[in-house]
Amino acid sequence: MNLNPIVPFEPISTETIPTSSDWITQIKWDGVRILTYFDGHEVRLMNRKQNDRTSQYPELLDIKRYCSATSCILDGEIIAFDQKRPAFQEVMKRESLRNRQSIELAVSRTPITYMIFDILMYNDIWLVDRPLLDRQKVLEEVIIPNSNLQIVQNFNDGNKLFDVMKEHNMEGVISKDLRGTYAIGGKDKRWQKKKIFHDLYAVIGGVTMRNGIVNSLLLGLFENGNLYYIGHAGTGKLSNNDWRNITQLVQSKIILNRPFLNEPARNKEAIWIMPVHTVKVQFLEWTTNRTMRHPSIQALVDMQVTACSFQQNE
C-alpha cells in the first residue's frame, strides 16, 4: 500500500455542548475507530493506534461497493449491535479474531456497520486543510450507503440529541465545528465530546500498591449479603494526598481472604481489606461480565455499609 497510516484527530471532553450555528453534533458510537486507506489498488483498515485490522472486516474490502473515489482515506467507527443498540463488547468479538474461518463465520454471526464521519483524502488530494463542511460535502458525493456502511448524521440541536442518547442508554455525543480543519495527530476543541456516565457508591474490598502507596481500588457491591466484585479503578479526582490517606486508612483493615464472592481480575496482586469503606464511582456502562467499563473514582465517601446499601443500577 502506498498510503502511510496516520494518527487520527481526537475530540476533547466537554460539559457544555456548543449551540452556535457553526457547530453540528453527531452520535458518539460505541465502537472501534477505523480508518480506511485505498491507494487505488489495495484497501487497508487501521485502528487509531495504526494496528492493521484489514482481515477482521472482509465485508469492507470491496470498496467499489460503497465508494466512488479512485483513492481515499476515510475515518469512522465500526460498531456491532447487542439487540437494539451498539455494544462495545460485541465489536470486540470481531477485533479478537485471527483465524480466517472464524472471521468468515463472524461476518454473519456478528454483523458490523461502518459509521463514516470524515474523508481525509480524495482522488490523491488531501482534504485535511479544508473545513469540515467541505469535507462532508465530498463524503456525501462519494459514499454509497449499504447494509454494512452509513454516513454519520448531523444534528443541529446538540443538547436535544444528548437527552435522546441518555434515554436510549447510548455512549454520548460529539460536537464539531463546521469551519474546523482536521489536525492529523491532534486533539483540540474543534471536536468536543460529552459522554454519558453513571454513578454509584461502591465498597472497597481490596487494593493494589506501587512503591508502598495504594494506586488502585478493587470495588464491589453488596447483594443478598454477599459482596460481588464489579471492577477496579485507579483514576479519577483523587489527589496524591488522597491516595496517601487511603494507604494509611487500609493498613488496619488488611485481611487474609478475599471478601468478594466472585474472583477479581487482579486477584494475584491484590491486598484484601475489610469491606467497610466506600467511594463514589463514575462509569460508562456495565459489561456482560457485570463489571464497570471505564470507572473513575470521584470521592472517598463516609457512609455505613450494609447488605442493602448497594444495587446495580443500569
Question: Concise description?
Answer:
The protein is α+β, with helices and mostly antiparallel strands and 314 residues long.
Walk me through what this model shows:
- By secondary structure, the protein is of the alpha+beta class.
- It contains five helices and 19 strands.
- The protein has two domains: 10-195, D-amino Acid Aminotransferase, Chain A, domain 1 (2-Layer Sandwich), CATH 3.30.470; 198-301, Nucleic acid-binding proteins (OB fold (Dihydrolipoamide Acetyltransferase, E2P)).
- The longest helix has 12 residues, at 240-251.
- The model is unreliable at 306-314 (pLDDT under 50).
CATH class of the largest domain: Alpha Beta
* Model regions low in confidence, pLDDT < 50 over at least 5 residues: 306-314
Helix content: 10-25%
Second rung of CATH, namely the architecture of the largest domain: 2-Layer Sandwich
Average pLDDT reading: 91
CATH fold descriptor of the largest domain: D-amino Acid Aminotransferase, Chain A, domain 1
Shape call: elongated
Tell me the major beta sheet.
7 strands, mixed
How many E strands? 19
Q: Whole-number radius of gyration?
A: 23 Å
> How would you classify the helix and strand content by structural class?
alpha+beta
Q: What are the secondary-structure elements, in order, as H or E?
A: EEEEEEHHEEHEHEEEEEHEEEEE
Number of domains: 2
CATH superfamily of the largest domain: DNA ligase/mRNA capping enzyme
Tally the helices.
5
Distance between the termini: 45 Å
Portion of residues in beta strands equals 35-45%
